[in-house]
Specification:
Elements (H helix, E strand, L loop, with lengths): L1 H18 L49 E2 L14 E2 L9 E2 L16 E2 H16 L4 E5 L4 H15 L1 H7 L13 E6 L14 H9 L5 E3 L6 H4 L7 E4 L2 H10 L3 H10 L2
Parallel strand pairs: 1-2
Antiparallel strand pairs: 3-4, 5-6, 6-8, 7-8
The structure holds zinc ion.
The site of zinc ion has 6 residues, from β6.
């Protein structure tokens, strides 16, 4: 049994190694997972790892296999969720609502929802964008673990496990599952979750104004090695006005903010 367990751990590490490559955080609903990674359930700090890497000398966010830690306070607005900090299995926020903003579709479906506080802030953000001539539209907000899992299974069937792991994130590691993230685009729907959005007036407006409403551009240009994701000018994450302004003023990512907090302890 011991040998079998070790073999499983080795396999998990290999799979995680693939997960930690820089991938798209949004990728048109690409978030999902194979199986729940090995985690400990009782870590006191959400940014602590449940285990050290089995590969010696590894550090950093996007190249080295580490076993994700389970996020202990998933309902906190500033929660850090990434490839190393995974939500509790099947986590679902209890206060999801439909923000009263324009989307690229009309159906009242899951991906239109956000947590109440984030939804209210989003309405103000969209209103300001409208007033300043850079109208926005929502593309995809909340995404359940169930949705991610079925999507991932679809990709595995289509392209095989190895390939799917390269373009799809593990379940529980997507910010969209927190109900605090949303992909947006211009109101005409063009460049939805595509690089060309970065060239639009809307993208520049968001860089300049999103923090005023409590949102950050979560996966910034030049920060790929820290966030583990390529630049996504369309992926907004609500963290609250105070923290959004602080991160912007200091020019740091949410990862760097938490690393600094840990170092100070
Ligand atoms: Zn996204």
């Amino acid at each position: 049994m011991e040998a079998l367990n070790m073999s499983k751990i080795g396999m998990t590490t290999m799979l995680l190694s693939a997960f930690l490559l820089v991938t798209s955080g949004c990728s048109h609903d690409n978030h999902s997972m194979v199986k729940e990674p090995i985690t400990e359930k009782d870590k006191p700090v959400q940014t602590e790892r449940s285990n050290t890497s089995s590969i010696e000398g590894t550090t950093g966010a996007n190249q080295n296999p580490v076993v994700p830690a389970t996020v202990m306070k998933p309902n906190e607005i500033p929660v850090l969720v990434n490839k190393e900090n995974i939500l509790p299995d099947n986590y679902k926020p209890s206060d999801l609502v439909y923000p009263d903003v324009r989307f690229t579709f009309t159906e009242k479906i899951e991906k239109r929802m956000m947590r109440k506080e984030a939804a209210a802030a989003l309405e103000l953000l969209f209103q300001a964008a409208d007033e300043q001539g850079v109208p926005l539209a929502g593309v995809s907000a909340y995404r359940s673990q169930k949705t991610q899992t079925s999507l991932f299974n679809h990709y595995v069937e289509k392209d095989g496990l190895e390939a799917a792991l390269l373009y799809s994130a593990t379940p529980g590691t997507s910010e969209h599952q927190t109900g605090l993230a949303i992909d947006v685009t211009s109101s005409d729907g063009s460049c939805a979750a595509e690089d060309c959005f970065g060239e639009t007036d809307q993208a520049q407006w968001l860089i300049d104004n999103a923090p005023t409403y409590g949102f950050i551009i979560r996966y910034e240009e030049g920060k790929e090695s820290i966030t583990g994701y390529k630049y996504e000018p369309w992926h907004l994450r609500y963290v609250g006005k105070k923290l959004a302004q602080e991160l912007t003023d200091r020019g740091i990512t949410l990862e760097e903010y938490y690393q600094a907090s840990l170092a100070a302890k």
